[in-house]
Amino acid sequence: MFAHFLLLAAIASTDAPTASTSASDQEAPVGKLVGSKIVDSHGAHDRSVRIPKPWKQIDPTALVVINRLVWEVQMLVQGIVEKDGTISSIEPVHCKVTSGDKLLPVAENADTCTSAFEVSKAAYSQWRYYPATRDGVPVRVYVTQQFYVKCNR
User: Fold this and answer.
1) Which H helix or E strand runs over 118?
2) N or C: which end of the chain has fewer CB within 10 A?
3) Rounded to two decimals, what is the model's pTM?
């Protein structure tokens, strides 16, 4: 069995950033966005980096099309906000599947988590950020984003 998903895209955007840098510049990210601050590889708050802010977001939502058994998937993904504000290297971090208020075992729902990740990745790859900056210069940072997807079996 595998989950059936239908993606509806809701776009929220403001003016695109004017500064553009090559996404092929592959230096290591300077840190990770944790809450509202950037932390370096040692876990210390790096006050010299201004956090990235999204200016375009795609929200994955799903509709029940076949039957009434609805599963909700909480999908946590991590990606890198590039210097030009695009998202790259999107990977799954955590998947939680529920039906009503019952938590379902992820091991038995691997297909559901895989499908939810693909939907989340497709949406997240279209997001755009004002990039993080250090001393006014764009830098790469890791960001984690949570998505909620509904599916039916």
Assistant:
1) helix 110-124
2) N
3) 0.63
